Structure formats: structure tokens, C-alpha cells
Amino acid sequence: MAYIAQLLGLYLALSGVLMIVKEQATMVLVPKLVDSPPFLYFLGSLRVLIGLAIVLAHTMWVGTLGAVVIVIGWVTLLRGIAMLLLPSETERKILTRKSSEDGGVVLVPSFVLKPGTRMIREWRGQTCSVLVQKDGFQWRGTTYRSLTTIAKEITGAHWSGPRFFGLTSHLATKPSAGAGHVEA
Question: How far apart are CA 19 and CA 42, in angstroms?
């Protein structure tokens, strides 16, 4: 069992270092991989394999650390099975990093907007209309990769783009006045 722990530990450490060293390549590669059904199948199979290896070796682990390792094994196994059974759903939920126009990091949301969808929001007496495109969002003739960047341009302050356009709700507060609507 120590062999599997060492193997996984070294593999994850090396993968992390490579992602940091080759950050730009990783930022380009990851979104392409998430769009690839064969990669998602491979990733689901790999998760099942790793989860099974940990779960089957659970008798080797004892104490609190053992309980944590067993839980991680079961979670990994179940997530792998879910990826194999529901690849389109899990694909949407995998978070990927993308660089935004201002150099920050944007997480891909858990909802999907189809190209051609128009989002409309009233802001300080003006109607703001954003068109969803295959490669981003068009507002005033310019294409942006992030709704948050558009919301900041409109308001002059930092806003969550999906929340600004009424695509998400926040449990702690009421929906903002004038929240937008979406036309398909």
C-alpha cells in the first residue's frame, strides 16, 4: 500500500509542478480537454481505478488518517463512476481555469448558455444587451471572455457577471433590483 501512496503522491506533485511551470500551456490545454469526450471517459476510468485501489486496500489504513483515506477512496470511486455514467453532466461541472482580459482567473460556471442567447439588463436607465457567442460574450461590438468583465465595464465596480445578469442567486441577499433576463 505504501507503494500506491508513494506513486500517487509523486505523480500529483510532479503534475502540479508541471502545471505551474507550463501555466500558459495548461490554460490552453485544459479547456480543450474538457471538451473532449474521450478524455472525460479516460479521466472517469482513471478515477475508478484509483478509487478501487484505495478502497480495496482499506484494511491497510488505521486510525483517523485511515478513515480520511477511505473516504477519499470512496469519493474518488463514486466520482469516477458518475463521470462514466453521466459524462455530459459532469463535463459541465468540472472547473477549469481561464485567463480573463485583466489577467485574473475565471472559473467556468456550472450552467451553459447556448450561442445566440441574449441577456438583457437595465442599469441606471440604460438597457444593456449581451449576446452569447461560441467564443465569449459580445457587448457593444466587442467580444469578452467573461461576463464579470462586462459587468465591471457597465457598473464601474466589481460584480459577479452571472449574478449581474440574473443567472445566479445568492442565498444571503435578495436579488438585485433590475436583475436581467435571458432570451433564447
Answer: 19
Hey, what amino acid is at 52?
A: L
- Give 44-87 pLDDT, tens digit per residue: 888 898 888 888 877 666 778 778 888 888 888 888 888 888 75
Which DSSP symbol is given to 102?
T
Beta bridge partners of 143: 138
Q: Are the CB atoms for 102 and 109 separated by under 8 Å? A: no
CB of 182 closer than 8 Å to CB of 165: yes
List Cβ neighbours of 178 (8 Å cut-off, separation of 6 or more).
121, 122, 123
Q: State how far the Cα of 49 lies from the Cα of 124, in Å rounded to an integer.
A: 55
**What is this structure's pTM?**
0.42
Could you tell me if 82 and 90 are in contact, meaning their C-beta atoms sit under 8 angstroms apart?
Answer: yes
Distance CA 72, CA 80 (A): 12
Q: Characterize the bridge pairing of strands 105-107 and 142-144.
A: unpaired
Burial zone of 168 (CB within 10 Å; 0-12 exposed, 13-18 middle, 19+ buried): middle
Residues ≥6 apart with Cβ < 8 Å to 144: 101, 136, 137, 138, 150
Q: What is the pLDDT of residues 10-36, one digit of tens each?
A: 887 888 888 888 888 877 777 777 667
Query: Which grid cell sits at 103?
Result: 489577467
Please give the distance of CA 182 from its chain centroid, rounded to a whole number: 22
